[in-house]
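User: I need a structural model of Trypsin domain containing protein from Asbolus verrucosus for a docking pre-check later this week. Nothing fancy, just the predicted C-alpha cells so I can convert them on my end. Input:
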Amino acid sequence: MPNPQLDGRIIGGIPANIIEVPYQVSIQNRGGHVCGGSVIHQSYILTAAHCLKDESISKLIIRAGSRFINKEGTTKRVCSAIKHANYKDEEDDYDYDVAILKAHSFQLCQDLVFNQTIMPIALPEYDEMVKVGTSALVSGWGYTNKEECISTSLQKVALAITNQTICRARYKDLGRLTGRMICAGCKRGVCDACQGDSGGPLVANGKLVGIVSWGYGCAVKDYPGVYSRVAKFRKWIRTKIRY
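Assistant: Understood. Predicted C-alpha cells for Trypsin domain containing protein:
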C-alpha cells in the first residue's frame, strides 16, 4: 500500500473571502506558495514543521489579508522560525508537526496590522477537547482536484471531527497516529485538504484546533485528513511566544 503523504489541497470546497478567514496566510518562497499558516499574534504565524523542510528561512515571506496568493493584502518577511524540538523530519513519522514563524524582529521586520482582513485566531486551552462530529472549517490554496495544480484563489470546505479510535484503525498500517493529532473528514470522501494546504488552519467553535499535516491520498473515502492537535501544543506555544 502506498505511503501516506503530507497534506495540502482543498478538494470539494468553494471559494472563500479572506474576511471569512482573516487569520489565513500564505507562506511563500520567491513568490511561490509553499504552505498555509494561521495568524495567532501580530508577530507570529502558526504552521506545520514539515513546511520548513528544505526551506531557507531568510527567503520566506508571508502574504496576509488577501484571498489571492499573488496579489493584494500585505507581505512581511519571516525573521525566524521555531520548529518543535521533537519533530523528526522523517518519513512515516509526522508527530510534533508544528512550528512558529516570527514576522517581527526589532528593526528588521514589521508586525502585522490588524483589520477586517487580518485578524488572529483564538487558540484552545491545553488539552481542550473537540467533540466528535463537530463541524470544522479548513481553508487554503492547495490543489482543488486530483490534478496537481495550485489554486490562486482561497478555498474553504466544511469537515467534521472524526472519532480518534476509528481514525487510528484506518491508519494502523500507514502511519503512527498519536494523541497529538486530530482527524477530520467528510463521509462522502470527496472533500479534504491536500498538497498546498499544509500548515493551514482547521477551525472549530471559533478556535484553531488543528494544523493541516498529513493523510492518505486526498479525499479518499474512509481516510480522513490528519492534523496536528493545537490543544496539545498550547503550553509549548505559550513558552515560545509568551502568549
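Before docking, keep this in mind: The mean pLDDT is 86.
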